[in-house]
Amino acid sequence: MDRAIRVDRLSRSYGKRPGIEEITFSVEPGEVVGLLGPNGAGKTTTLRILAGIIPPTSGRATVAGIPLSQPERLHQAVGLLPEAPGFYERATAWRNLVYFARFYDGVCVEGRVEACLKRFDLWERRDDRVAGYSRGMKLRLALARALVHEPPVLLLDEPTAGLDPEAARDVRDLIRSLAREGRVILLSTHNLTEAEELCARVALIRTRLLAYGPPLGLRDRAAPPVVVVRLEGPAEVSPGLTALPFVRSARAHGDRLQVELASQADRPALVEALVRAGARVLEVTEERPSLEAAYLELVHDERRPA
Amino acid sequence: MNSRIQNVLAHEWRHLAGSVSNLLYVTVIPFLLTGEALLVIALVHRFAGSAIVQSGALTSMLDRMAAQVPILSAASREEQVLAFLVYQFSFFSLLVPAMIANVFATLSLVEEKLSRILEPLLATPVRTWELLLGKALAGAIPAILVSWLCTGLFLAAGTGLGWGVAIQAVLTSGWLLSVLLLAPIVALASFLVGIVGSARATDPKGAQAAAIFLVLPIFGLIALQATGAIWFSAGIVLLLAAALALVDLLLLRMAVRLFSRETVVIRWR
């Protein structure tokens, strides 16, 4: 059985306004993929379509091998953590989970609810009303609810939004452990550090897919890495250096040369050329743009008129 | 009934039972209304019965009633006036299912809407019709039972107050049909009006305001009956039930469309 998420040219519009346009990506079992993008970029729309809550306007997708045209089977296979995970506040955590668990086929309700509450460290507070829970506890309860039917696929909409650093770290640890179990996890986030830390691949969307791949590749795509060469003595940019065919640009700053290369494979050739020109090279390092810088670069590129 | 509908039904009842104010609303107000009806009938009959007879205002109506109900033809004018007053309770009792079912629908849906529970709920395999039917039954069953219970209490109390002839006289097929048949239809309509109202409302009171569209026609029926403009025979009550059932169908269609997953997550704010 195909457990992955496969999205092929998926589009959804709201009247004349496009929600998402021809988005294509995939998420493999055991993988966490992040949806990045500014507000209104279509992250939540994508998750809702894949959860079988709203239909796409065009395009195809399968979730755990189930096409979007079979929403009832889809609901059975997907655990959704919505952006605002609401609860019956006057009911207990136990009661909330039991109510949701009973909608799924083949779930041993009480056993699963107990296992989920224990896993998310809420067992001791199971008989408390949810109204008395902290935001972090509510988020853990929402994750427990998303997992109560043991779905192979998890869709998480901003799972750490509004949490304090400690609670956010706990949730990230939980997501990692869920991925290790072989689940397919697609999450949307504004937190770029989190995306870099958790996700094997990220899809940067702004209605359309702007970039898709490992966070490192996304950074390289936005701005190629710069090689920093520390020299013995003051550095200067010679005409010979800029004339090298693989050098895109070069800057001198104190005893350092910052050189942007066509490819990282050209690093040995650069060092060789510098040594041949009489420079004494002390250190060669690579300077990469942050994911945030890459994100802003890509999003701003998209905003610029063609 | 499938297990998902049972789940919704049990949840709704458990949830409502958790709120003392809601429980009081369901239990106390209908009985207060019944008590009020008994009191008004007793007072009007005691202090204004003779005046009504002497004024002749209801003469043609009382004659028509006596012609339809044999037991009244031998009764005194005062007893006929009492029977006429008791007769009004059939439509008055429809206010009970109208209120209770509407309150159930709006409290449940508006809370779910405001607490943002609907999106995770609609991500489960529960079908829209199962969710709506479970909620409708949760509101309609107590509304109908309380309405019938109030009618039973009204009849028992009336008999206890010595209104035996009047009670016997009004227990016509038309009166019984209006109590037994119209109550479930009105309860369903009231629930559906609650759903339609909840789609736009930001609090339960706002959603309940839509119930006015149901309560006003009931008052219209009471007025038609009280003024003697229409004698609600079994045939007319059946016609009325059919018309109301048609309204229920239209409201159901509207509610199902309003409650579709897509509409709820995109438009309900």
Distance from first to last alpha carbon of chain B: 32 Å
Biggest sheet: strand arrangement of chain A: 6-7-8-3-9-10
Q: Work out the radius of gyration of chain B.
A: 21 Å
Estimate the global geometry of chain A from the Cα principal axes: elongated
Global mean pLDDT of chain B: 84
What's the β-strand tally of chain A? Answer: 14
Strand content of chain A: 25-35%
* DSSP summary: helix tally of chain A: 11
Mean pLDDT of chain A: 89
Helical content of chain A (DSSP H or I, runs of 4+): 25-40%
Shape of chain B: elongated
Unreliable residue stretches of chain A: none
Task: Characterize the biggest β-sheet of chain A.
Answer: 6 strands, mixed
Secondary-structure element pattern of chain A, one letter each: EEEHEEHEHHHEHEHEEHEHEEHEH
Q: Helix/strand-derived class of chain B?
A: mainly alpha
Largest sheet of chain B: none
Intertermini distance of chain A: 43 Å
**Series of secondary-structure elements of chain B, N-terminal to C-terminal:** HHHHHHHHHHHHHHHH
| Radius of gyration of chain A over all CA atoms, rounded | 24 Å
Q: How does this model look, in words?
A:
The complex is a heterodimer of chains A (306) and B (269). Chain A has 306 residues and is an alpha/beta fold. Chain A is 35% helix and 28% strand. Chain A has helices at residues 43-50, 71-77, 93-101, 109-119, 135-147, 165-180, 192-198, 215-222, 239-243, 267-276, 291-303; strands at residues 5-14, 17-27, 32-36, 58-63, 66-67, 78-81, 153-157, 184-188, 201-206, 208-213, 226-231, 247-253, 256-261, 281-287. The model of chain A has no long low-confidence stretch (mean pLDDT 89). With 269 residues, chain B is an all-alpha fold. The radius of gyration of chain B is 21 Å and the shape is elongated. The two termini of chain B are 32 Å apart.
